Amino acid sequence: MNSFNIKRFGQTFRWVLATNFRNFLAWTLGAAVGVFLMEMILIAFNVGPDGRNYIHELRYDISPICSMALLIFVLVALSTGFSAYLKKPQREAFLMLPSTNLEKFLSVVIYVTVVWSLAGFLAFAVGDTLRMVVRSLIYHNEWISTVPIVLDRLIPHGFHVQSNVPTYFTVTRLFATFFLFVWMHSFYTLFSTLLRKYSFVVASLLLVLSVTLTAWVCFEKLHLKTFVVTTQVDGMPVYEAGVLGYLLCVMLPLLSIFNYWASFHIFKGFQLITNKWTNYDILKR
Fold first, then answer.
1. Whole-model pTM?
2. I need a surface site. Which of 126, 155, 190, 250 has the fewest CB within 10 A?
């Protein structure tokens, strides 16, 4: 089987869902309890003994932490997407499926990207609801959720075309922002297929190191600009898409394509018995 078949892909995807359901359910419930405890602790450290009238202001302090926790949850899922097939029986069953490598690879990637993202948000909503229930029963607080604020933080704003903003500025900034997230997705997907242990830790450390080093070189040494909005003396804004902004529009898609290609190339080389730390043995190739 060399060609991609949508029906066969659907069957493979359903198999991935079924075999990972218990692990998926456990992580979702655990994340919901974690969100509940995190919000309760943050509130306990920031309100008085009566616990009243806190949520109107405090929810704006909670929402950045919740947004970061939700992002970390998704990145952990991405970097551990293939960890369910580390042991020989699971890997043998997965590799023996009557489907192509591309169908298997896409089934896992879409599963950890879409399903786990929805699960993370569902866990956050459930945990936030539990917080509202408990605070309402104990302190008679209002039922005010932080979910709308977190959604507002996660959804990019300011990219709609305005009459006073040049179209090229809006388009290039939106393009670069979109592919920044695509590159992060491809980066963690690559380490998910490459490493058998500590993939999230290694990927995160390398991500922070590479972004910090790139920013230092581009901003401090080369003095490049991305997307800058300055104000003239007369108060009129000036929009400028710098050289680095255009470089990002070119480099981020290319790096993303390379990461996905490398990830799929590693996946095609999966064996039942492999290296203790990696799924790709360079010395044998």
1. 0.86
2. 155
